[in-house]
Amino acid sequence: MPPEALLGRRTGRKPRVDVRRFPRAERPVQQPSSFSQAGDGQSMIVVMKPGASREQVEHAVKRVEQLGLKPHVIHGTHRTVIAAVGDRRDEHREALESCPGVAEVVPILAPYKIASREVKPEPTVVRTGSLTVGGGTVGVIAGPCSVESREQILQTARAVKDAGATALRGGAFKPRTSPYSFQGLKEKGLQLLAEAREATGLAVVTEVIAPEDVPLVADYADVLQIGARNMQNYRLLEAAGRSRRTVLLKRGPAATVDELLLAAEYILDAGGEQVILCERGIRTFETHTRFTLPLASVIYLHEKTHLPVVVDPSHGTGHAWMVPQMACAAVAAGADGLLIEVHPDPETALSDGFQSLNFDQFQHTMQLCRRVAEALGRRLGSAQQPAGVESPA
Ligand code: PEP
Ligand code: MN
């Protein structure tokens, strides 16, 4: 099959890889690991009939609760489904099937439930202020590893915006490997990020490292970043979910993709609705890069989850000079967004300078990625701010 046919050009369809051309059996089967067994495998999806009334949905939700299961209502474009999470028994299934307006009740096979495509086949598009991730828009989150000073963050915010970034990143609370390294400006850093948002209109993405800090960080941030070191900090995941802020969840360097999805499930189960997954590289025996950046995980994640996936080529490679090409490769692999470290003067950065781009390099990277995105029928960066979406603080 010629590549252009694969990309849909001959058929005149949007140039996206059509996974239906690859029979399911030929695609790799998910290998169960001891951790992926953590799912109970017994939750269910209650599929409402098209046009089921609000009362019928509410009634089904009440029945789910009465049976001791936890309901999560998902309104798709064509149908409403209720994920009924918990211990299923066959009589539960029958009880729910007899509710008015219910089309069918099917078990959710994946260990993660609300994150699964079984529950929501259509991809989730995350929109927060200026940032759109998914739905054909490749969101670009750019900025320094750490917020260092007013001048540094304001200058960077303006530069990345001019180059087409749609959100500003910057750590105020830094999880550092050594306790003697710069730990971040903390609340002062959050205030500077809010000032940069005010000046540029860019949504702010910043890390939260402890459950007790979630309310403070959520007061300033549009997106709470949960870092690689904290991917399995379950109390933090729950606190972030309860805050209802959008969460960017980075993959742990030693975590499988299924563990990443189960971590996202904690956020969704706690009430979070907008979760962005981030592939940022894993630890392998290889030393030519800081981490190994597996882009196949983007493709696998798109198969298994409706949540959007962004790629961080900065931490994924650890070398500024490798970032432009890996950013392009991520877009080509179908990433819904990029997270890129940018600093006015990488040489003097207080953290991760060696992997940070200067303004000129970032602009160049954006030009390259834009061409790749457009060749594949997607847009890079600047989407219109959706009406009615307000920034916090
Ligand atoms: C960061 O984004 O600066 C960071 C600390 O990333 P990670 O959690 O992926 O190491
Ligand atoms: Mn960093």
Stretches with pLDDT under 50, minimum 5 residues: 1-13, 28-39, 383-393
The CATH superfamily of the largest domain appears as Aldolase class I
CATH classification, class level of the largest domain: Alpha Beta
Distance between the termini: 53 Å
- Using the coordinates shown, work out and report the CATH topology of the largest domain: TIM Barrel
Treating each run of at least 4 consecutive H or I residues as one helix, how many helices? 12
Proportion of β residues?
A: 15-25%
Rg (C-alpha, Å)? 21 Å
* Largest sheet: number of strands, sense, barrel closure: 8 strands, parallel, barrel
Identify the bound ligands: phosphoenolpyruvate, manganese (II) ion
Secondary-structure element string: HEHEEHEEEEHEHEHEHEHEHEHHEHE
- Please tell me the overall pLDDT: 90
Name the overall outline: globular
What is the share of helical residues? 25-40%
